[in-house]
Amino acid sequence: MFETLILILDATMRVSTPLILAALAGLFSERSGIVDIGLEGKILGGAFAAAAAAAVFGSAWIGLIFAMLASIGLALIHGFACITHRGDHIVSGVAINTIVAGLTVTLGLDWFGMGGQTPTLAGDARFLSLTLPFADAVADVPVIGLIYSELLSGHNVLVYLAFACVPLTYWVIYKTRFGLRLRAVGENPHAVDTAGISVAFLRYRAVIICGILCGLAGAYLSTAHNAGFLKDMSAGKGYIALAALIFGKWRPVPVLFACLLFGFLDAVAVRMQGVSLPGIGEIPVQAIEVLPYVLTVLLLAGFIGKAIGPKAVGRPYVKERA
Amino acid sequence: MKGAFLVTATALAISVSSAHAADVKPAVVYDQAGKFDKSFNEGVYNGIVKFTKDSGIQVREFEPKNEAQTEQGLRRLAKRGHSPIVAVGFSMASALERVAKDFPDLQFTIIDMVVDLPNVQSIVFKEHEGSFLVGALAAMKSETAKVGFVGGMDIPLIRRFSCGYEQGAKYVTSDATVFENMTGSTPSAFNDPTKGAELAKSQFSQGVDVIFAAAGGTGIGVYQAAKDEGKFAIGVDSNQNHLQPGTMLTSMVKRVDLAAYNTYDQAVKGTWAPGLTVLGLAEGGVDWALDDNNASLVDVDMKAKIEAIRADIVSGKVSVHDYMSDNACNI
């Protein structure tokens, strides 16, 4: 039983990683006042760029750089539309999602001729699992050995990076001058402007950080968790990350737990299939599939309370109105 | 004036009749997994490539993005007079039925499903027989007596694979444990390699060391997971042994390429006929794949045993229960 639990938590870490990265990306963007429904598109774009570059150059790290560049590029388009031209954030975000969904397959067809997929990656072109020091040595120690060797060891570098990003984000948002200004610009851009700080520049920096994190999430999907790009491989993760962001009320640590909850439900759903529960019998696949969504609705309705976002989120900043 | 009209009409009639005799305008509609799923659809695609090469006739292709586009695609191809139109996959049955009724003069072929109309040819396979063979091989290869199955969408057709596989495994090792997972309950379950990899990892961690994936594009994730963990996987539909050489134990080959090729070929020769065609081991419609990529994984003894089982199924000595005959797998 204990071993099963550890294995489920192990799977939770794998499944949650892209959600955590994407949700933190959304956190930076939304805390600065830019609604980002385009997380999905940026992840997908990053995944494609990572797989394509890794296939061409044979290095997962080069793939990662290209993923971040592609994702930053998309983030800047979003920024250009929303910050410079004061466009509607939702429309711009949806446009990015739509463009990327089509563009990745089209470019993939043109470059690799494999129906929108990229070649299967192997060896250095992928982020492989790392074994933490002494993991094998302590594997036989009861409880701690299993936790260390199964749960903590044996993930790839991006998983550890994602979890490290959470305290880092907390520090940046709450403990640095940049973080203070970022929070201020999302709540009251006029005050920030009055203090002589450029609202546009702050928001541009926020969307660039958002792009970097989405690029990481995308690279994780195509070069670490899988071994290549497939059409629509982000499969709604950007939207789930957005839900986790609202769940966690735009705060790094609660957002982490929201992402872990979604990941955990996914991992449990995989495990529950075909298992007979005492008294109930075998649960049909469909019932298990619906479980995460039902729980989301229940939690949102009953336990989370009111989620209030940054005050100025989604509103373009117009200087003259001040 | 009247003469001129007559001449034109005759010319038209001649051109129409010659169009019927020589020009076959074949078309195909793939299912939502897309034609490059390295599995089911790609098998059909390979058959089409071969047909085009042999006959020089281009085949019009359509890939629907969602359920609704399936019927639109079929109807559009029918309106343009394409015939025969091959519908790839069980999910097109209801759409094909409607379209085929509206275009009684055109020829339709559906793979993996039966549509009982005078202008439809239905080609189905005895997947349980092929799955029985690979199940037997999996049980021979397994050191833990635990083998796994990852299915795509949870439908009777996929249960037929799983049931045959389980029977095969238990035929060889009577106390074998068979773990079974389905990826989902929508057609997108055939194109979700991330979920496939997670399901495979979950089974491996429970002691499974051979997994058969009957899940289209989802299988790619299963094979990758097997490679990463140093375990074995079994491919499906097309010969997928080349995808991960060294860890692909075999593939349950379903000759959809042959089904597609024959349909077009018969149309060209004028021998196309509606009705039901069932292809099993005896007809060469399903089989297990042995090539350079997996030769080192299957020793002489295993090969001989599998060939013996194969002969027993063909001769009827071993009968494999078909899940779809009673929607149950009581073995």
TrEMBL record, chain A:
This is ABC transporter permease. It is found in: Cell inner membrane. The keyword Transmembrane applies. It comes from Marinomonas phaeophyticola. Keywords: Cell membrane, Membrane, Transmembrane, Transmembrane helix. The keyword Transmembrane applies. It is a multi-pass membrane protein. It comes from the Bacteria. Pfam families: BPD_transp_2. The chain crosses the membrane at residues 7-28, 48-77, 89-109, 157-174, 253-270, 290-309.
Automatic annotation (TrEMBL), chain B:
Residues 28-320 form the ABC transporter substrate-binding protein PnrA-like domain. It is a lipid-anchor. Its main location: membrane. Residues 1-21 form the signal peptide. It holds the Pfam family Bmp. The keyword Cytoplasm does not apply. It is found in: Cell membrane. InterPro entries: BMP_lipoprotein, Peripla_BP_I, PnrA-like. Keywords: Cell membrane, Lipoprotein, Membrane, Signal. CDD domains: PBP1_PrnA-like. The keyword Cytoplasm does not apply. Belongs to the BMP lipoprotein family. This is BMP family ABC transporter substrate-binding protein. It comes from Marinomonas phaeophyticola.
